[in-house]
Amino acid sequence: MYSESMENRYVIFGAGAIGIAVGGLLLQSGARVLFVARPAFAEALKHGVTLRPEDGEDLLVRGDAVTRAAEITPAREDIIIITVKSQATGEVISDLAEVYDRSATVVCLQNGIRNEAIAALRFDRIYAALVFLSAVQLRPELVMMPKGRVVAIGNYPQGSDDTARRICEDLARAGLDAIASAHTMAMKWGKLIANLNNATHTIVDYWLERGMAETEMRDLMREVREEGLRVLDAAGIEVEPPAGEPSPIPIRKSTEALRRPPKPNDAAMEMPVEKRTITSMLQDIYMGRRSHEAEFLNGEIVELGRRVGIPTPYNSTLLEIIDRMFEEGLKPPLYTPAELHAFVGSRAAAS
Q: Which CATH number covers residue 52?
C-alpha cells in the first residue's frame, strides 16, 4: 500500500490560508510537502502563491498539489496535517481512509474540538494541534500573515510523544513558535472561547483590530466569551493548561482585559487590508462560500449549555444569524456592534 520514504513528507490537506502558510513555511525550510486543495488553489500553488508576512519579505510558495485524497501516493512516513474547516472533517477522514491504513499519522490543525474524535474513528495515531496564527486569503494567489506564529501539538486525547516533538522541531525550523504539549486539548478549548467571536466579527463586518479598538464591540465580545466560559466551567472542561505549563492563550485573563476601555487607536480603524486580521468565517463570506464552522464553535457552547442547564442567548443568537447569512447569501454588515449587542441583550434578558 505504501511507497518507501527516507524522511517525513507533510501532506497538507485543506491548503487554504492556514494550510498554505504552514505548508509554505515547511517547504521553505527544506521539508517535503504535498498540498491537497480546491482546484483553483491547487492550480495557484503550481504556479506560485505569494506568502506575505507582516514583518518580512514575500515568499513565493510553489509546490506539488492535488485536489483529492485519491490522487495521493501514500508513503509510510507521511504526516497528514488537516487544515480544513470542521464541517468538512468527516468527509476528509473518510477519503483519507481509502488511501491510508489505520497506522497513518494524522494531525488536526483546526479550530473546534471535535475533529480529533472524528479522525480517531478511522485512524489510531491522532494528534491535536492548536493553531494560533492569522492567515488571510481573499484570492488564491496571495496569503497574508498579519500576526501570530504559535502552534502546539500533543497526542489525542492526552500526552505528548516523540512524534509530537519531532513535528514541533520541523515547525520551529520553519519559523513557527511550536510547542509540544500534553495539554493541547485544553488550549483548543480556550481557543474555542476566543473563536466564538468569529461570528460577531462576521455579522458586523469587522477585522479583529477594529473590534478591539471599540468599547461597544469589546463589551459584546466579553459577554459572548463569558457565557462560553460559564458553560465550560459547569461542564468541568479545562480551558488552560495547569499552572506552570506553557499557555499561548491565557483566555481568562484576556477575557477580563476586555473590560478595560480601548486605547485610542486610529491605526486600527484605518488599517490597510494586508495588515488586517480577518476571521476565517468572514473570509468565507467574502469568498462567497455557503458553509461555515459556527456550529462547531458557538454551536458547541449552545449544546453543552443545554446539557448543563446554562442559558446561552448570546451564542445561540449569533449562531442563528450566521446560519441565515450563509443560507441566504447575505452580505455583512447586518448590524452595528451596538445594534447587535442590544438585540442579543434583549434576548438574554428574556431568557
A: 3.40.50.720
Alpha helices (H) along 287-330? 298-308, 313-328
Same domain for 207 and 74? no
Phi and psi at residue 217, in whole multiples of 5°?
Answer: -70, -40
4 in a structural domain: no
Residue 350 has pLDDT above 50, yes or no: yes
Is 35 in contact with 301 (CB distance < 8 Å)? no
Same domain? For 167 and 234 the reply is no
Claim to verify: residue 250 and residue 150 sit in the same structural domain: no
Q: Are strands 49-53 and 125-132 parallel, antiparallel or unpaired?
A: unpaired
Query: First vs last Cα of the chain: how many Å apart?
Result: 56
In a domain, 174, yes or no: yes
Q: Which helix (H) or strand (E) holds 107?
A: strand 105-109
Longest dimension (CA), the chain: 62
Q: Is 275 helix (H, G, I), strand (E, B) or coil?
A: helix
- Residues 301-314 have a mean pLDDT of 98
Question: Residue 1 pLDDT > 50, yes or no?
Answer: no
Which are the contacts of 182, defined by CB distance < 8 A and separation ≥ 6?
154, 155, 158, 159, 160
Quote the pLDDT of residue 148: 81
Round to whole Å and give the CA distance between 255 and 82: 29
The verdict on 227 and 320 lying in the same domain is: yes
* Residue-number span of the structural domain to which 152 is assigned: 9-182
DSSP-assigned beta bridge partners for residue 51: 59, 143
What is the DSSP pairing of strand 59-61 with strand 78-82? unpaired
* Positions of E strands within 140-223: 142-145, 150-155, 177-180
- Number of structural domains, the chain? 2
Residue 78's SS3 state is strand
